[in-house]
């Protein structure tokens, strides 16, 4: 006789198949409502549906930070124009966090916000007007309230699925990709505040201790993820460690603990804490092996390869990427093999072993084309363009960057980076007008797609562009724009690099006093783990001091 776990797993797997069947090849707007008991299961189900329904472009919108009354109105405000004006059903929109708008505060009292009544009123617009699929996610209590308080709306609902709580649920799925843009933004600050408010008001004497601890675990996890996107290492570290501690105390050994270990390791990788990154990726591998989760074992070895690659320990990087390939060949069918060959190409590219780099990039392209992975394919052409750029083969570099742009037309948020690289190609050839034209395109696309966190680096490069032409005023203006955007988006750890460049401008103008001041500021703002950058800045400080000494 099957165990409860087997019954639960079969139940959830069957629902996934039903949702896939409901949504595949739709020609008309369709709404699916999905009840899930916790954030972790929601993330896994959402990720699995994206994999199963690859014919659609998915767009996630988290309404948690907003006070929503009209769902139709806020979707019109928040969704990109390309989705709203789509001529056919090619997008699937995941709507998260709507249940948080069900109640509001008035004169110190918690009252009904009126959101459910408005949903009932605008039911026909919601179900018939949009030319995209909608998945409305929420907890079970939210949908019970919809049934009771919006009976006219509920009469339209034909696709409602209830997933069950299952801490041991082991469905293999790709890791969910964060949809929120990484940056210090007002909307993120509001969301963090709301999470902290929820955390602060959790009952201390809850009779169901396990439930209360799970809720605390969910909030710690969300806060850690948001602070990571906020570029706040210390707070992200604190909440990841708190979450991991609770997960271990609750003896959670499945996907949820693995994801915490993986995300915490990635935070440390991003901030160059390489030993900590290795420690937690390896812990994650042990947990994934215990549950026979091959996808996440592969993903962790891939990340370990990147840790060694960032440290330029090439043999260990290649050794771990080879482990990924060996595992992927056993795990058939697998669509990630092209990404691993892409990364091996990067290793050889960084060593300037061009033939091996191009050979591995070509293997990646062949596999990405076979699997229809347009996004990854564009990234590989981008790297090939960089190789030809390094070899000063400008024609082939531009040809591959154009391939990237063509492939990324549906991923507009990636276009800015490629136009920036094209600008650098023209700058290296001293074709100044073409370089500036493409830099301005990079700014346009990053601003249009909300990639403000990339603008600091773009303005920094434009500053170098003017510096090379000895346009000192324009160079300084763009470097200060870079500083402004880095501060605005929370990337203070990158400020030192730009202040160092400002020092170079003053030094090139013969103003060594101001140069020294900017170099010292750069050194004070550069984190300890930016070892190479700190050495370069120290050399500049020494050079400026020597020049001043010679003048005195």
TrEMBL record:
Source organism, top-level taxon: Bacteria
Record keywords, A-Z: Repeat, TPR repeat
Pfam families: SNAP, TPR_12, TPR_8
TPR repeat segments: 298-331, 338-371, 378-411, 416-449, 496-529
Name of the protein described by the UniProt record: Tetratricopeptide repeat protein
């Amino acid at each position: 006789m099957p165990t409860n776990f087997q019954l639960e797993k079969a139940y959830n797997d069957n629902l996934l198949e039903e949702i896939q069947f409901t949504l595949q090849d739709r020609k008309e707007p369709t709404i699916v409502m999905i009840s899930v008991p916790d954030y972790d299961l929601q993330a896994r189900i959402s990720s699995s549906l994206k994999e199963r329904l690859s014919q659609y472009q998915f767009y996630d919108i988290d309404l948690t930070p907003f006070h929503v009354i009209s769902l139709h109105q806020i979707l019109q405000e928040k969704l990109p124009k390309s989705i709203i004006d789509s001529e056919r059903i090619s997008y699937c929109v995941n709507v998260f966090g709507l249940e948080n708008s069900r109640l509001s505060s008035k004169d110190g009292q918690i009252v009904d916000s009126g959101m459910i009544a408005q949903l009932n009123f605008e039911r026909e617009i919601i179900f018939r007007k949009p030319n995209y699929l909608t998945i409305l996610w929420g907890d079970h209590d939210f949908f019970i309230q919809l049934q009771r308080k919006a009976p006219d709306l509920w009469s339209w609902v034909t696709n409602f699925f209830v997933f069950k709580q299952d801490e041991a649920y082991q469905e293999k799925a790709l890791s969910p990709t964060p949809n929120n843009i990484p940056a210090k933004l007002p909307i993120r600050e509001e969301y963090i505040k709301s999470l902290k408010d929820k955390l602060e008001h959790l009952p201390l004497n809850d009779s169901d201790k396990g439930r209360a601890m799970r809720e605390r675990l969910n909030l710690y996890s969300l806060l850690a993820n948001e602070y990571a996107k906020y570029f706040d290492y210390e707070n992200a570290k604190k909440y990841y460690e708190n979450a991991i501690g609770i997960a271990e105390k609750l003896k959670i050994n499945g996907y949820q603990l693995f994801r915490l270990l993986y995300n915490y390791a990635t935070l440390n990788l991003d901030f160059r804490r390489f030993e900590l990154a290795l420690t937690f990726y390896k812990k994650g591998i042990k947990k994934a092996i215990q549950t026979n989760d091959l996808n996440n074992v592969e993903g962790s070895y891939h990340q370990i390869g990147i840790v060694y690659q960032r440290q330029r320990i090439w043999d260990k990087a290649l050794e771990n990427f080879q482990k990924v390939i060996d595992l992927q060949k056993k795990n058939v069918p697998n669509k990630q093999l092209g990404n691993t060959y892409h990364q091996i190409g990067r290793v050889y590219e960084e060593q300037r072993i061009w033939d091996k780099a191009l050979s591995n990039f070509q293997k990646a392209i062949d596999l990405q084309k076979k699997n229809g992975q347009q996004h990854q394919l564009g990234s590989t052409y981008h790297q090939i363009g960089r190789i030809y750029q390094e070899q000063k083969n400008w024609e082939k570099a531009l040809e591959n960057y154009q391939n990237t742009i063509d492939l990324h037309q549906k991923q507009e948020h990636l276009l800015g980076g490629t136009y920036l690289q094209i600008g650098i190609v023209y700058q290296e050839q001293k074709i100044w007008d073409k370089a500036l034209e493409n830099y301005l395109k990079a700014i346009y696309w990053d601003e249009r797609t909300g990639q403000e966190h990339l603008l600091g680096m773009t303005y920094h490069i434009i500053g170098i562009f003017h510096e090379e032409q000895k346009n000192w005023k324009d160079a300084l203006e763009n470097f200060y724009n870079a500083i402004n955007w880095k501060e605005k988006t929370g990337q203070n750890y990158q400020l030192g690099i730009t202040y160092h460049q400002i020092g170079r401008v003053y030094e090139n103008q013969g103003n060594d006093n101001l140069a020294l001041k900017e170099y010292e500021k750069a050194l004070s703002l550069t984190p300890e783990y930016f070892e190479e950058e700190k050495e370069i800045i120290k050399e500049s400080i020494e050079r400026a001091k020597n020049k001043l000494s010679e003048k005195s």
